[in-house]
Design goal:
Distance between the termini: 103 Å
Largest sheet: 12 strands, mixed
Helix content: 25-40%
Radius of gyration: 35 Å
Order of helices and strands: HHEEEEEHEHHEEEEEHEEEEEEHEH
Strand order of the largest sheet: 7-8-9-10-11-1-2-3-4-5-6-12
Strand content: 35-45%
Length: 358
């Protein structure tokens, strides 16, 4: 029988346990570090941050959009869009500084005289004044639909749709803020990189827009709506720059006296304007030729209630007519110029009532 094996060294076992315990301590510390970093960078995933940004948009009463709008980026500036799709703001349009107002399918622009002289096809828009004036344009002249594409809820839907993108978001910055950039087939979306995230920028190809986005709180929304209400009230003096009435028939006679000349014509309403439509008509008379000496003018207003032409008349009384009729007389020419009212009293009231739903 050989000698007994020596007893195990107790100190060695203790060191092994100490190492294990130490290793366990290191693991625990590393786990603590990971948890701390994740919490410090925001506990939500990118998809959850998209949801937060969408929810913040959905609860906004309006959004401020600053950038370019339209296929040719001809519209640039700052536009406030309400949850009901009404939009207003100062912009540069085709090189001119104007104020844009789009509401309930109607488009208005406030601009100076030089802008309207370029925009209106009439040779003599007698109603133009110095300073800023509201004019109505065909909505088709604006190749963007604010109500369909750029309301807070519409933008919220576009943000939610970015969650389906197979492309992972990119960490970046925008306007000095940490941001996440999401790219889809048709748009690029920047949201703030935080748990309570907000949409910072929206870029899209259809419709073509590149705008910074600022959701409005309730106080700012009230201010936006108040400004819109004031501007809509000014539309009672507006004109329709896209509408062109025509003379369907001139009435003969009425000008056989040196005291004056009664001018009367059937006015055909513009084909693209809803009736009833109110038209201010200015009749002029020139001597001898279409560009001859001015013999006077008069103005009348006619409201056309159907697509059929309607008579309008007024009497020219002037010293020029009296002198010409007494001295030489002869051939004279009648002219008609028009101001189509941009918004009737009823339309203004309806537009303002629409703001009550915002």
């Amino acid at each position: 029988m050989g000698p007994a094996a020596p007893p195990p060294k107790r100190g060695g076992g203790g060191a092994a346990i100490a190492v294990i315990l130490g290793g366990g301590l290191v693991v625990l510390l590393l786990i603590g570090v990971v948890v701390f970093v994740a919490t410090a960078g925001g506990g939500k995933s990118p998809e959850e941050k998209l949801t937060a940004a969408a929810n913040n948009l959905s609860s906004a009463g309006a959004v401020e959009l600053n950038g370019t709008f339209g296929s040719a980026s001809t519209l640039r500036g700052e536009v406030n869009v309400t949850k009901g799709g009404r939009a207003m703001g100062p912009v540069t349009w085709n090189g001119s500084q104007v104020t844009l107002l789009s509401a309930d399918g109607k488009l208005f622009v406030k601009a100076d005289k030089s802008y309207w002289e370029r925009e209106i096809s009439d040779d003599d828009p007698f109603y133009l004044q110095n300073g800023q004036q509201w004019g109505r344009l065909d909505p088709d002249e604006l190749d963007i639909d604010f109500k369909r594409d750029l309301t807070p809820s519409a933008l919220a839907n576009k943000v939610r749709s970015a969650r389906t993108s197979s492309i992972k978001p990119v960490e970046t910055t925008w306007q000095g803020k940490k941001a996440l950039k999401f790219t889809t087939f048709s748009s690029t979306i920047y949201i703030s990189d935080e748990d309570d995230s907000e949409l910072l920028r929206y870029e899209a190809t259809t419709p073509r827009v590149r705008v910074d986005v600022t959701p409005k709180d309730s106080s700012d929304t009230r201010s936006v709506i108040s400004d819109m209400r004031t501007s809509i009230g000014e539309l009672k003096d507006s004109f329709n720059a896209s509408a062109q009435p025509r003379v369907a028939e001139w009435k003969r006679g009425g000008c056989n006296s040196s005291s004056g000349c009664t001018v009367e014509a059937k006015i055909r309403p513009p084909y693209d304007v809803e009736t009833p439509v109110t038209i201010q008509v200015r009749f002029r008379i020139t001597a001898g030729t279409l560009t001859g000496r001015d013999l006077g003018e008069c103005t009348t207003t006619v409201t056309i209630t159907s697509s059929l032409p309607q008579w309008a008349s007024c009497r020219v009384t002037s010293s020029a007519w009296t002198s010409w009729a007494k001295s030489t007389g002869g051939t004279f020419y009648k002219h008609a110029d028009y101001k189509v009212i941009g918004a009737t009293t009823e339309e203004v009231q309806a537009l303002q009532s629409g703001l009550d739903s915002e």
